Amino acid sequence: MSPQPLIIALPKGRILDEALPIVRRAGIEPEAALGDDSSRALRFSTNLPHVSIIRVRSFDVATFVAFGAAHLGIAGNDVLMEFDYSEIYAPLDLGIGKCRLSIAQRTDMTEDLDLSRLSHVRIATKYPNITSKWFAEHGIQAECVKLNGAMELAPALGLCPRIVDLVSTGATLKANGLKESATIAQVSSRLIVNRTALKVRSEEISGWIERFRSAVAG
Amino acid sequence: MSENSTKTLLPEGLRDVLPPDAAFENEVVERLTRTFALNGYNLVKPPLIEFEDTLLSGVGAGMGERIFRMLDPSSHRTLGVRNDITTQIARIAATRLASDARPLRLTYSGPVLRVKGTQLEPERQFTQAGIELIGADNGAADIEVIVVVAEALKKLGVPGLSVDLALPTLVPAILAGFNLSVAAAARVRAALDHKDVAEINAHAGQAAGLLTKLIEASGPVDRAMAQVATLALPPAAKAEWAALEHVARALRAAIPNVAITVDAVENRGFEYHTGITFSVFTAASQREIGRGGRYKLVSGEAATGATLLIDALLPVVPNTATARRLFVSNGTSRAVVATWQDKGWIVVVGLSAGVDDTTEAKRLKCTHILKSSDAVAVS
Predict the structure, then answer these.
(1) Mind listing the domains of chain A with CATH numbers?
(2) What is the interface pTM, i.e. ipTM, of the complex?
(3) Which residues face B288 on adjacent strands?
(4) Nearest to B26 by CA among B312, B374, B314
(5) Which of B197, B216, B220 sits opposite A202 (nearest CB)?
(6) What is the pLDDT of residues B8-23, one digit of tens each?
């Protein structure tokens, strides 16, 4: 019997470049088009006939894996926290894509610096769930304006005074007249697996987790 | 909004089940409960709605966020719609059936409601069918429940069955031995639910090494048992783990075609459970099709049970029934109709005279037509 198909979901963009060496060390050699940003293909074959890779947006990696449409994936814990899907396990920290999820506000803002005095904030973010949960834990009601990118523009243009976004060096914030006021979480990319796949194809999926673990260690 | 859309739109997570799916669902539930009955489980039928405080007492505590509530115009008390039938069976066993002989074997089926669906499972109304075995506090009871469920599923033709055993009491027993703050313990529990090793390393302190090893040990029985055997578990946890191992080995012998895996850290969805629990999967579906495990009645009596999630199960049950529908023309005697029905045929009687029987039979999706006391296939 030939092995059942195995689908691995990888995120587009910067993380992909960091993830590919690990994927290769785990014994998977994807076709060259995967690393080529100009390729319009969505699904890629590998050196293993039953293993294929899909390249999707980072948020969608979690969704494909949660529904079992992909069996393995690579996603940041920012995405995992935002969705909190019950069907995703994250058994391995790949140590790539490191950054932090932070709250930033206008550098020239003098009022409301003390969060404890606030009862309500309006905030632009790609992460409405994490944001409202974090503020709720601090006793503040957060009204989230959902944006999908270029968050840093929002305060300067008067959309709202604060944003919640990923920060790596802080250069983008600075260039847009923003400064970090609090860190919500440290972020790194994790190997994620679908719960049912791990239960039903236990030997095989555990084997892949082991291979990725050695790939990260080596 | 068109007039039609206001008439057809249902609230989210609710749907009409149409032919032939509705009949198929009924048949599957009947075949399951028949297997349960053949194993000595007697049918009980609790109501859909109960007083809120009754519904949320005992093993129902913790369901508060999930139930629909309404005010009873008659008693002026708050009513709740059941979210789970097991909690009702537990109530019945501890009260009305308290004096019945133990072990008490009960079976049930019916719809349940929850206030909110998820993106993964948007349904708000489900059908459950299950068994509860009350008053037996040993491994034999755990084994019987899992074996009966596996056999019932096999009879339905569900392919590639796999049972994942868990012990939700193991992690609390381990955490009790380490001096974690309440907040850290909560984060560790949440991280364990996602098998998130990075979060565990960040928050579990001294317990991190042991918990990580437990996560890695989860998988096929033999490997899990060998790996956990090398770990320094607290004595109480060790005894429970030995009981789990006994059950796992007995299951392998009793149901050799069912894959048995073990998950040492699984806890989600087992809120009221106090011992060995399990989830049932099939290679044919991405959804869990059943779950169950050990719990305690308010009386302190030991119980274990299993619930099958019919909505997740239906797509993986092969529909082998070849329903034969016989069209008979208007005016056929009821005696003739009864003869064919006794032989297992569905008989559809034509209501209008003067139309072509063959055309009519085809239009009404009949497979056969009665011609001079013979059933002739409709081509």
Answers:
(1) 6-97+188-217 (3.40.190.10), 99-186 (3.40.190.10)
(2) 0.87
(3) none
(4) B314
(5) B220
(6) 899 999 999 998 899 9
